[in-house]
Amino acid sequence: MSNADTLRQLHQDHLSNYNNHEQQAIELMGLLNKLYNQQDVQVTLFGETLNTTSVGQILALHQKVALREQGAKSIDIADTLAMVKALADNPSLQSAQVDVGQLIANDTDLQTALQAINSNDRTVNDATDVVLYGFGRIGRILTRLLLSQASSAKGLQLKAIVVRPAAAGDLAKRASLLERDSIHGSFAGGVVVDDENNGLIINGRFVQIIYANDPSDIDYTVYGIDNAVVIDNTGIWKDEAGLGKHLQSTGVKKVLLTAPAGGEIKNVVYGVNNDTVGDDTIVSAASCTTNAITPTLKVLNDEYGIENGHVETIHSFTNDQNLIDNYHKADRRGRSAVLNMVITSTGAAKAVGKALPALSGKLTGNAIRVPTPNVSLAILNLNLKTAPNSADALNDFMRKVANSSTWQSQIAYTDSTEAVSTDFVGDTHVGIVDAQATILTDNHAIVYIWYDNEVGYSTQVLRLATQMAGISYTQIPA
After folding, report:
1. Which of 163, 202, 288, 355 is catalytic?
2. What is the model's pLDDT at position 478?
3. Which ranges carry the Glyceraldehyde 3-phosphate dehydrogenase NAD(P) binding domain (predicted)?
4. Which of 31, 143, 201, 473 has the highest local Cβ count within 10 Å?
5. Can you give the pLDDT at residue 52?
6. What is the average pLDDT value for the chain, to the nearest integer?
7. Angstrom distance (rounded) from CA 249 to CA 282
8. Comparing C-alpha atoms, which of 345, 360, 346 is closest to residue 297?
9. What is the pLDDT of residues 248-264, one digit of tens each?
10. Residue 350 has pLDDT above 80, yes or no
11. pLDDT(291) > 70
12. Whole-prediction pTM
């Protein structure tokens, strides 16, 4: 056989193999939708959601996500399909989050895993109405995350978006901002303006648009909304007096703020101190930076102990800055955001102490706003009580943490020599450790953490909103 014939045959073999994988992905999507719609079962691959509408995403995820040990091959989609088929053959399984990657990687028998679940732990989740108060960057990202999923009659249900009174044509502009995004691209779905009912139909689901100047003026029950969780992403109110206005309206049971709060309101980083929420009716999801660094700080402190340190954030510019030089009440932020690096303050280091009391008073922090629209970088300069033998040992520890079932949905790890900020646009992990940048000198460690300050943070907000709504899922494996 000639070299040309060999290459032609190789091409055909690869194409045939890929076509086979495509058919398996299509079958997998149908099963995933069935599990989600009928049984409230969410399936992940090492903490990453399997997209129920994209063959390409499913195949790419299988190529990217290995068995989480160096030198291991990627999980074959046939293995995932077989596992999901077995799940679909268990109609009694309800309200569960199943990580098929962990099951396959650890050679866990599915039936054994199912039998290990205490029948008393099985829950059935009802629907919870959600209201987004504000429709800025975070509000629109939350909308995308909530309505890009397959439809379900359970869990968080986005019912309304509240904005300030506006001129005619406002609905069309709101729809356009949701459909088109300069950072995250086009919305994966359809958005239709319903002028008659003053709302938007997003992926077949009606979302009421409510115009109001004050939260306490709204009667949500008029719109068929009751016992709702309000996610306030305006940043206007940050204390109990202001946020309490939401609870004065009719139809609201709890309020979640997407910014650091003052007073006695708890600042919560999901996965670190969300066990403190209890029956609180007003909770803060802290800041994007606090969420990005606290999980990594926790695992480093648990493993090595942190004496003290400094956090420097290289942060993308935000809407509170000026495009060109103009008056601003804050120092330096009046200078052009797109032309300057702007040194500013950050409360993230101090806020870590609220979520992680063991580090209270041990960290300082500053931020530098830079001319990029999204994805930021936190640099942790830490003095450790006990240190690993080398930077490689520290990286190996962080790789294992990122691959653990406990932290895989929040902490990620990259050792690419080519990674830059735009590679992490849309990454749902709250923080991604860059192993190539790790430095260790004696007991002094420098760790770099990338984070999509919009999407990564918004996934944390929704995890916390889910908990506040009383929605829980049986974890498989436990």
Report:
1. 288
2. 76
3. 128-288
4. 143
5. 79
6. 91
7. 14
8. 360
9. 999 999 999 999 998 88
10. yes
11. yes
12. 0.92
Residue 67's pLDDT band (boundaries 50, 70, 90)? very low
CB 283 within 8 A of CB 231: no
Question: How many percent of the chain have pLDDT more than 70?
Answer: 96
Cis peptide before 477 (omega within 30 of 0): yes
Q: Strand 411-414 relative to strand 155-163: parallel, antiparallel, unpaired?
A: unpaired
**C-alpha of 172 from chain center:** 28
The predicted pLDDT at position 70 comes to 47
Q: CB neighbours of 358 closer than 8 A, spacing ≥ 6?
A: 301
Least confident of 39-48, 144-153, 366-375: 144-153
Domains of the chain: 3-121 (no CATH), 127-259 (3.40.50.720), 288-453 (3.30.360.10)
The residue whose two tokens read 């990580």 is: 99
Q: How far apart are CA 201 and CA 207, in angstroms?
A: 6
What SS3 string covers the chain?
A: CCHHHHHHHHHHHHHHHHHHHHHHHHHHHHHHHHHHHHHCEEEEECCEECCCCCHHHHHHHHHHCECCCCCCCECCHHHHHHHHHHHHCCCCCCCEEEEHHHHHHCCCCHHHHHHCCCHHHCCCCCEEEEEEECCCHHHHHHHHHHHCCCCCCCEEEEEEEEECCCCCCHHHHHHHHHHCCCCCCCCCCCEEEECCCCEEEECCEEEEEEECCCHHHCEHHHHCCCCEEEEECCCCCCCHHHHHHHHHCECEEEEEECCCCCCCCEECCCCCCHHHCCCCCEEECCCHHHHHHHHHHHHHHHHHCEEEEEEEEEEECCCCCCCCCCCCCCCCCCCCCCCCCEEECCCHHHHHHHHCHHHCCCEEEEEEEECCCCCEEEEEEEEECCCCCCHHHHHHHHHHHHHCCCCCCCEEEECCCCCCHHHHCCCCCCEEEEHHHCEEECCEEEEEEEECCCHHHHHHHHHHHHHHCCCCCEEECC
* 13-37 b/e (C-beta count within 10 Å ≥ 16 → b): eeeeeeeebeebbeebbebbbbbbe
Count of Cβ atoms closer than 10 Å to residue 180 Cβ: 12
CA distances from 392 to 209, 300, 306 (A): 52, 15, 19
| Span 205-256, pLDDT tens digits | 999 999 999 999 999 999 999 999 999 999 899 999 999 999 999 999 999 9
pLDDT of residue 66: 52
Rounded Cα–Cα distance for residues 141 and 185 (Å): 11
List residues bridging with 132 in a β-sheet: 161, 231
Give the tokens for residue 178: 């949701």
